[in-house]
Write a structure and sequence with these properties.
Blueprint (H helix, E strand, L loop, with lengths): L2 E8 L4 H4 L13 H13 L7 E4 L3 H11 L7 E4 L16 H14 L12 H21 L11 H22 L3 E5 L1 H12 L3 H6 L7 E7 L1
Parallel strand pairs: 1-4, 2-3, 2-4
Antiparallel strand pairs: 1-5
Helix pairs in contact: 2-3, 4-5, 6-7
């Protein structure tokens, strides 16, 4: 039985990652650190072999893959597949995490969900409550598996398209008998790992996906 490899890695840090923004389908550049991280991944994969590489339409995926490909003349085909694109944060794309927390906290506070004692609190205490309410909403949006942002995708929705990608990917590997590399995004990788490693939802959403490392999977043919 032959064994073929999948090498999966995240793009380097972008300006939006650095500034703690919901990046989603926005298309920011890699930072200087991000380029260094991409080069680090490239060096780790230097002695691996793959014949087909996947990227998404976003330039952070392309730029990271370009660094990796410098060591891989044997890669003869690059495929764009947006099923591995980042989670779409919809109306939140480009918004800073902190501004979201502040805005939502103010909105929830105005709904009078804070109880009768709220009117007697100091300004500082009110600010703390608003921040807490905003953070709780942020957690639901940022890590809630079935909660989509307004006009965006939940993790469950991302998993559906990633699952479709994996099925087609395995068919391709078995047909072409090749190793593949995939330059993807934090949340698409999260769901790719969940499927391939048969992990729980709770475990998957708790993972931190590094900018400077890769995951390796074996497909038996």
């Amino acid at each position: 039985m032959a064994k073929y490899k999948i090498y999966l890695f995240r793009h380097g840090q972008t300006t939006y990652n650095r500034d703690k923004r919901f990046t989603g389908h926005r298309d920011p550049l890699l930072t200087t650190l991000g380029v260094s991280q991409a080069k680090k991944v490239a060096k780790k994969l230097k002695n691996k072999q793959f014949q087909i590489a996947f990227e998404t339409r976003l330039r952070r995926s392309k730029e990271t893959l370009n660094q990796v490909l410098k060591y891989h003349p044997e890669c003869v085909k690059i495929i764009i597949d947006n099923r591995m694109i980042e989670r779409n944060y919809g109306n939140l794309n480009g918004t800073t995490h902190e501004s979201f927390i502040h805005r939502v906290g103010r909105k929830l506070e105005k709904l009078d969900v804070t109880g009768d004692a709220y009117e007697n609190l100091s300004k500082a205490d009110r600010a703390r409550i608003e921040h807490f309410l905003g953070e709780e909403e942020y957690k639901l949006i940022h890590r809630g598996y079935n909660v989509p942002p307004p006009k965006g995708e939940s993790f469950a929705m991302v998993e559906s398209r990633v699952s479709s990608f994996i099925k087609d990917l395995i068919k391709l590997i078995k047909k072409e008998k090749v190793n593949v590399a995939i330059s993807a995004h934090g949340n698409s990788i999260r769901l790719f790992r969940k499927i391939m490693e048969k992990a729980s939802k709770e475990k998957a959403i708790a993972w931190t996906i590094p900018y400077d490392d890769y995951y390796e999977y074996t497909i038996n043919v």
